[in-house]
Amino acid sequence: MASRMSYYWDACMFYEWLGAEPVSPTKKEAVADLLEENQKRSNVIVTSVITHLEVLPKKLNDKHFHDDSMYLRLFDGIHFIEQQISQNILLRAREIRDYYYRPADPAGAGGKMMDSGDAIHLATASIFECSEFHTRDDSSRGSKISLLGLYDWSGNPKLAGKYNLKIVSPESAQSSMSFDYADHSQAPK
Question: Which of 5, 16, 47, 137 could disulfide-link to 147, CB 3.0 to 4.6 Å?
Answer without folding.
Answer: 137
